[in-house]
TrEMBL record:
Residues 1-20 form the signal peptide. Keywords: Signal. It comes from Shewanella electrica. The keyword Signal applies. This is Uncharacterized protein. InterPro entries: MetalloPept_cat_dom_sf.
Amino acid sequence: MKFSRIAAALLATISTGALAGGPLYIHEPTMKPYKWDTSKGPIPVYTDGGPVIMDAHGNPVKSFSVLEKGTTFNLDITLPDGSVLPKYTTLDRDYTFLTVDQADAVTANAIHQWSAVETSTFEMTIQGTIEEKAGIADVNGSNAEQIIYAENGYGFWVNYDTDGQILEQYFGVPRDQVLGIAFPEWADEATGEIVEATATMSGWYVSVEDTDGAMVNGVFTHEFGHAINMSHSQANGQIAYFARGYQPMYDGVPGCEGTTKYTSSANLPLSSVETMFPFINVLGEGGREQASVNVRDDIVNISDLYPTADYLSSTGTISGTLYTKNGIEYSGINMVARNLDNPLYDVITQQSGNQTQGLIGPDGKFTIHGLTPGGRYALYMERIVAGGYPTTPTAILSEAEYWNEDESSNPATDDACAITPIVAQAGVTQQVDMYFNGYQDGIKYTPLVQAYVQDHAKNGQRALGTTQGGSIFLYDSTKKVPFVTIANAAGYAMLQAANPAMDKTATKAAGVADFNGDGVATPAVWDIRSNKITPLPDPSNGTCTIDSDAGKSSASVWDISDDGKVIAGTVRKPRNSDELICAEGAGGASDGLPVIWRNGQLEYLDLTGLRNVPWVRADRIAGNGTTVTGMMNGNGQVAWVNGKFRDIDAEFGATDGSVISSDGRYVAFGALDLTVRGRPSKGVQVWDTHTDQLRDLGGLRWCDDIQAYNAIGINYCDRGYDHDSLVANGVGLPRVTLMDANDDLTMMTARAGSILSGGFTGAIYVEGLGWMTTGEFFGKQGVVEASQSVMDNPFGLSADGSKLFGGWAGAAITFDVNMDKAYVCDNGVNKELSFPKQVVAAVKKGAEFGRCEHLNDRY
């Protein structure tokens, strides 16, 4: 018999942070879960002894939890025996709080919870101590290796980590965050039978109000579930632990009739929280309630692993596959069956693909056993909110939805809120495949998960970005496949992840690279076709540096002309003009200056007439290289037209970002009204650099498009104000930061709002259609893939306006949006036309923008 160690990762219950139903580990030769052989009788449990500490009366006691010497509490502490330690008393020695006997009682209750499930054959009982079996009276940080990962013999070994030293010294995790660690440890690799498991239970993180261990009991039950080979699951726990006013949670599909919206756990009985949810609050009632295996989700998951002979024949089953709209299996989504007549306690969840855990490729299969015969179940999909799962949780690619008898991928016929109750029948498996909704025509919305595009070719074909791990990639939108660049022969990466920029045809890119391995990136241009990288002139030779999230660099590269010959950015020079380089450690004593590199030669941009400005950067360049814009003091805009400096902040109130037409003639920016005190925003203006004339494009509307918060968080939209009344009171229009534009500025993208104003909002301007939020734009087009993840950062627009890249501010995800075709509703008839030109022309003739059935939709 060959034993192998199967615990490849730590499954820890976290106290205040994070760590689906189904197995924790899969036996790959058979692709079945590792399991204990319950035909051998109850699995023996062996418990730890703990250190000997004096109780309040000076009696030596084997201790599980200790009040440590030198600790001072700001409240009276009642010990389990009724003794009281007055508040503000500094403890003169260690005091026993919970004894090993009490810990053993908690252990006994936890194993009873799993052993008493009527539809499961699993059973375990305490049959001795670790001292009796292995000769160790107290497993601690100094000897843990003799028990953990050592072959001790058949059974489940429970260690009591009194002071948290096993967690810290052996596992390397903080004792003030981790409550317990447990896993099946050794197995017969020929059969997949678990023969040994280990748990380490923290005695340090116990509430001083938990005088009988009842509040920490939930941790024991949870961790012992892992030792049985149960994974985490999500049924109601996300409501109890994550529901907030700004982050509501739901017991069904959001927005549908019959679904409850929770903004806190106030209306949720904690007894309905599943034991195997990844979070347990041991400082409150959550730990006490999660100690009981009473929610159907937990009962079914252990019964799936260790079923009684009549388990499947006495309960109902749902089996199906989750597909993308294109028919590709999709794993990692929480599939939920909730009894409409007992929704909180009779709820069962399984992740799609959790029986293969990504080991065999795309797998959207899910099977939900244990349905109550006669029960009416609503089946729906939801994302995993948080926690560690063997099957990687994934994003919902479209709108969340219920299953119904007309299930399809067509949003026009498959109403996300339509429910066909599945009536469970004993011994009967009902097949219910599900598809993400999404139209096969019109606008295409493709997510690039764990990838952040930073710049794109204006022909819309390729993009340059970084993965969440920091690797640079090129993305080919015609193939929908990113590929990671390789280091050149000299061993350094082509470009670092610091604002790389691509020319129009994706033949050249500019950025910074560390050429000599000294940790300092300097400006460079990369010929993508030949894979050759060339340094650009750097006035300080990499000695004047600044630190950023992207690393240490002596220059910043921001934009590149269409032909790749002119590059805009910022370099650093020593503040003392007589010096050529910065002394070691004196990079901060340097100035950032706006520059362009023209055909590889450095040119400083003119700042004549500008005084007392700490820094100015150049960050935008026209396609033909004639006009450059930039920023000063954080948001004020400046420009250089054919080399001549213009302070457009002082002249026009230009602020928050600008975009330039390809020919360099027109510059658009958000503008402030310089004639009014407080400088309210007056929307987006287009400046004709030839005539100095301004054209007003307006902007978003308060309350309709974006909420109106003041500095202390009051939302005026909730106080009876609307857009017109706010503007009349001098608030101005919502400020927007322009992100990108097509060649002639007939289309623009922007971002509005902030964290203080309830979050960011993406916006799109189309000449002839006006301003729309990205939620309105995609909603009207019926792009349901955007409903759960509408972009708020639409940063990249192609030259003809048919391609868009965007994401969420601060998140490593990008959406590749193909907009060459879009819909109008013409006299009640949907018409797919070329976008933007044919769509705009049709709207001018009286058609409405969007699909007829989605004209009022907003995401």
